[in-house]
Design brief:
Elements: H1 6-19, H2 28-31, E1 35-43, H3 49-64, E2 70-73, H4 75-83, H5 87-94, E3 97-100, H6 111-115, H7 120-142, E4 148-149, H8 159-167, E5 171-173, E6 186-188, E7 191-194, E8 200-201, H9 211-227, E9 231-237, H10 248-253, H11 272-290, E10 295-298, H12 300-306, H13 318-326, E11 335-337, E12 340-342, H14 344-355, E13 383-386, H15 387-404, E14 411-413, E15 416-418, H16 420-435, E16 443-446, H17 462-465, H18 478-486, E17 492-493
Parallel strand pairs: 1-2, 1-9, 1-10, 2-3, 4-5, 5-7, 8-9
Antiparallel strand pairs: 6-7, 6-17, 11-12, 13-16, 14-15
Helix pairs in contact: 1-9, 3-5, 4-7, 7-8, 9-11, 13-16, 14-15, 14-16
Length: 500
């Protein structure tokens, strides 16, 4: 790294001083806040032996700094380490937390491609078939079940969450644009999503002179998060970045190519000095972060505890159910209440239970229903049904939720089906009457409604979503993203433990 001139050092110190206040200047509420740094590595390159050494170097450095990171390991990478007899690398990574990063990463077809024509159940099964063996090998080789998953490149699909639920994984850890709840941690498909975050930071490994700017960005993020009562910063790298000049997969699988393994080409390597420089940048950056007394390095499983879902097993009072019903309106979405949040699917389950004549005082949520997975019926005008039919429907829906664990795609009022969001709005109006002790109306109106939470899931935008070099030209996935929008029923803010 080039030495800083006295003037540059002075300006740099003034900027940092404005961002780093001593404890005496920090308010009582802010002094308890923490900045949680989740440091993760996509450990994917199974071509270059040098990338094995890079993972070893990083793991040993962090252990020496008393920091545990999350290494998301590709199944074939784990198997390659085993074949190469790199017990030293495996043991070094074991001291950290292990995540999962797909079975083969970039060989065609990648997850978004093979999931794109499939529905929910078939897609979950196919993801499990293709990726499950890799997850099992990672667990076998590292002796610990992977705690999180994140897709290769931008090859994302909602059905992966269904497989994660089967595997017992609680965290989706990556970076992308498919789901974005105000750039904050959120729950989606029963999984903590650390995905599109406002504070996703990196220091440029190839430009040592840019390190001061990276430090300033972190200091600013720290200041903003402390003012909010605390929060998370996501920092990620790839071990192979430290030893090569171009990603291994971009050399071999770009634009949909899928050559046989014997024809794979090695990416251009960095010089020894370039690698040493990259390590210095990273190590200086990490040591800079450690200087802040409020900074805590966390792993994937620790993030799950910090952002635990406090709606689970909460005993809902009559007043709470009434307030929840009042907030639904004609554009149902997630709700944030005192100390916990509810997804639209959880609101649906609670209000349906209250209308189905279950004791309101005993209502709890043991799980979050998934969103609908089939095609929704259209409703363009208000329809009415009698109260008796509506109550019978609510009991049928309660049974559907219990048996299938998801919101029905069509809610049947006798011979007429309506979309679930329209039914939820009618549920809310009816539940309020029941809670207020008023008589059932003779007729119940079901009006057109729109799931507002769906706007937090991206449209099928090729530039925004599918720009990874691995995708074939013109790749689109409209059905995949439509299915993802239906799972917005499960979306809600993830609240930092102790916050509101």
């Amino acid at each position: 790294m080039k030495p800083r001139t006295p003037l540059r050092q002075m300006v740099y110190s003034i900027v940092l001083f404005s961002l780093i206040l001593p404890p005496s200047f920090v308010g009582a509420a802010e002094s308890k806040a923490k900045v949680y740094v989740i440091l993760w590595f996509d450990t994917e390159d199974y071509m270059l032996p040098a990338s094995d050494d890079a993972a070893l170097h990083l793991a040993k450095f962090l252990s020496g700094e008393d920091i545990r990171a999350t290494f998301k390991v590709v199944g074939e990478k784990a198997r390659t380490l085993e074949k190469r007899k790199r017990a030293d690398v495996i043991e070094a990574l074991k001291k950290h937390e292990i995540g999962f990063h797909s079975n083969y990463h970039s060989t065609q077809p990648s997850p978004a491609m093979y999931l794109s024509p499939l529905g929910w159940d078939e897609g979950v099964a196919e993801f499990d078939r293709r990726e499950g063996p890799g997850r099992a090998d990672v667990e076998r080789i590292f002796g610990q079940a992977p705690t999180c998953y994140g897709q290769p490149g931008s090859s994302w699909g909602p059905q992966s969450y269904g497989a994660m639920n089967r595997w017992g994984m609680k965290v989706y850890l990556d970076a992308g644009n498919h789901v974005n709840l105000n750039e904050k941690p959120c729950y989606y498909c029963n999984t903590l999503n650390l995905y599109k975050l406002a504070h996703t930071l990196r220091a440029d490994l190839n430009n040592p002179g840019e390190l001061p700017r990276a430090e300033e960005r972190f200091a600013q993020a720290r200041k903003e998060l402390l003012a909010e009562g605390g929060g998370v910063v996501s920092i990620y790298y790839h071990p192979c970045e430290f030893v090569h000049k171009k990603f291994w997969d971009g050399v071999n699988f770009d634009r949909g190519q899928n050559p046989p393994r014997e024809d794979w080409k090695q990416p251009p390597a960095k010089t020894a000095e370039e690698t040493r420089s990259a390590y210095r940048v990273f190590e200086d950056y990490i040591r800079f972060l450690k200087r802040f007394p409020e900074v805590r390095f966390i792993t994937s499983s620790e993030a799950a505890k910090l952002y635990r879902d406090r709606a689970r097993d909460h005993r809902f009072t009559v007043d709470e159910i009434g307030a929840i019903a009042k907030s639904v309106g004609d554009e149902p979405s997630f709700q944030t209440l005192k100390g916990y949040s509810l997804s639209a699917s959880e609101v649906f389950a609670l209000l349906n239970a209250s209308v189905a004549q279950l004791p309101v005082e005993r209502l709890t949520l043991s799980k979050t229903p998934l969103g609908p997975t089939g095609r929704l019926p259209a409703l363009t005008e208000t329809i009415t049904t009698d109260a008796n039919q509506f109550r019978r429907t609510s009991r049928d829906v309660a049974d559907y939720l219990d048996k299938h664990g998801r919101i029905p795609s069509a809610v049947w009022l006798g011979s007429r089906s309506v979309p679930p969001e329209a039914y939820l709005s009618a549920l809310a109006r009816t539940a309020r009457l029941r809670i207020d002790g008023k008589p059932w109306p003779e007729r119940v109106e079901i009006k057109p409604a729109k799931l507002a939470a769906a706007r937090y899931v991206s449209e099928d935008d090729p530039k925004k979503l599918w720009g990874w070099v691995i995708f074939p030209p013109g790749f689109r996935a409209p059905a995949l993203m439509e299915l993802a929008k239906r799972q917005a029923w499960t979306l809600k803010p993830a609240l930092l433990d102790g916050g509101e």
